Amino acid sequence: MTVRVLAFARLRELLGFGERRVGIAEPATIDGLWDLLAAASPQLAPLRASTRFARNGELVPSATALRDGDEIALMPPVGGG
After folding, report:
1. C-beta of residue 56 within 8 angstroms of C-beta of residue 71
2. What is the helix (H) or strand (E) element at residue 4, kind and residue range?
3. According to the CATH classification, is domain 2-75 in 3.10.20.30?
4. What are the pLDDT digits (tens) for 58-73?
């Protein structure tokens, strides 16, 4: 299946893209997608616990199943004051 991955802020810098279509074997979850991305960009590993995920515009847990054509947004924590 293919999903559209959107990466923001620090995650965009580390991955080297803001938007990309990614192929992943079925069945797949957001956790599996993260593992696939982290295998290519190991510097992502420390950010896993603080990253939030949205599937098709809705915040979801990382165990959420993926469907072909989903849009997955990877969002690092927001800082500031």
Report:
1. yes
2. strand 2-7
3. yes
4. 999 999 999 999 999 9
